[in-house]
Design a protein that fits this description.
heterodimer, A: five-stranded antiparallel beta sheet, 5 strands, B: alpha/beta, two-stranded parallel sheet, 11 helices, 4 strands, globular
């Protein structure tokens, strides 16, 4: 998993635990947490695949732009690997 | 006259039980005579079915409720005070807060707990924007405000404004780290040990640790001046 990641901009129906306010936002992996049952299946009582879970750290500037109270404050959230895409360090 | 509300009571009182003011001078609150909601009926139905089919018993359910009610912020306060006095424990806590809490004998079930440390230049704040995730197995039930839409939405958007409303004005030199409990982890803030507490015992230190300072919406109490000297 790349150090820099972007939360996928998907809006699927049903129970997901990637908050809408983080979708499309770029952050860095703060730590890996191991694998947990996929809540998108658990929520419906289905057999759940184990999915890797990460703590991703975003800056308030990334989340709220000019509206951020203090741009370098941070927000950490737990995001499943299948919601993350790698962002090259030297993205154009 | 602070309690002179008789006219209002006559206008508003549709019940048949109490009129006017209570002996202590406050208006009576209406009885909660509302029908059960869909989910309340569902909970009762599922619970009664589970008992009827022998999956669980009423005693087991009551036991679990008692166990949850017995958990309180005092458990977390004991963990924090141990971390303040025992550097080895503190490093185990920051490495795996669940295991460190179990080591102290707390029955926290399968809880995955992460401790985040406040330092001179960092302040941590815990929220669950999606629902009301909270380290219940260690601290007991969350405060009502923790579950409100206002706290859940504003803590991530304007944490400084929220903290100011809790009476906590942090300088611009302090970095705020907000932690959104979006999945399987639960969080506890390890507050910085207050100055002037060098002579206090672990039990005395635990008295300074409030629920709010473990959520990040407060700081530990200051030691009473003239308390136990070292």
């Amino acid at each position: 998993m790349a150090k820099r990641v972007r939360v996928r901009s998907l809006m699927p129906p049903g129970h997901v635990r990637a908050p809408a306010y983080l979708r499309g936002k770029t952050g860095v992996i703060e730590r890996s947490l191991g694998s947990f049952g996929n809540p998108e299946q658990l929520a419906y009582g289905l057999p759940a695949e184990k999915k890797p879970l990460f703590r991703v750290r975003f800056t308030m500037a990334e989340l709220w732009g000019d509206q951020a109270e203090r741009p370098s404050d941070t927000l950490d959230a737990e995001i499943y690997g299948h919601w993350l895409e790698e962002v090259p360090d030297h993205a154009p | 006259m602070p309690h002179d509300h008789h006219d209002h009571d006559h206008d508003d009182d549709h019940g048949h039980h109490h009129h006017g003011l209570s002996p202590s001078g406050h208006p009576y609150r209406q009885d909660d005579d509302t029908p059960l909601t869909y989910w309340q009926r569902m909970e009762i139905a599922v619970r009664e079915l589970l008992i009827e089919r022998g999956v669980t018993t009423a005693a087991e359910i009551a036991g679990q409720i008692d166990l949850m009610d017995s958990r309180s912020p005092a458990n977390g306060a004991a963990v924090v005070a141990r971390a303040w006095t025992d550097p080895g424990f503190k490093s185990r806590l920051l490495d795996n807060a669940g295991d460190a809490s179990r080591e102290m004998g707390f029955d926290i079930g399968p809880l995955h707990l992460i401790a985040v440390e406040n330092t001179e230049d960092t302040h941590n704040l815990i929220v669950c924007t999606l629902c009301s995730c909270y380290p219940r197995n260690l601290l007991g039930l969350p405060p009502d405000w923790y579950k409100t839409r206002a706290y859940r939405s504003r803590a991530v958007r304007e944490p400084r404004a929220v903290l100011a409303e809790f009476g906590l004005e942090l300088p611009d030199s302090t970095t705020i780290r907000v932690h959104d409990s979006t999945a399987d982890m639960r969080y506890i803030v390890l507050p910085a040990r207050p100055a002037g507490t060098e002579g206090l015992t672990e039990a005395e230190l635990a008295e300074l640790v409030t629920r709010d300072c473990m959520i990040g919406t407060g700081l530990p109490r200051a030691p009473q001046t003239g308390a136990t000297a070292g």
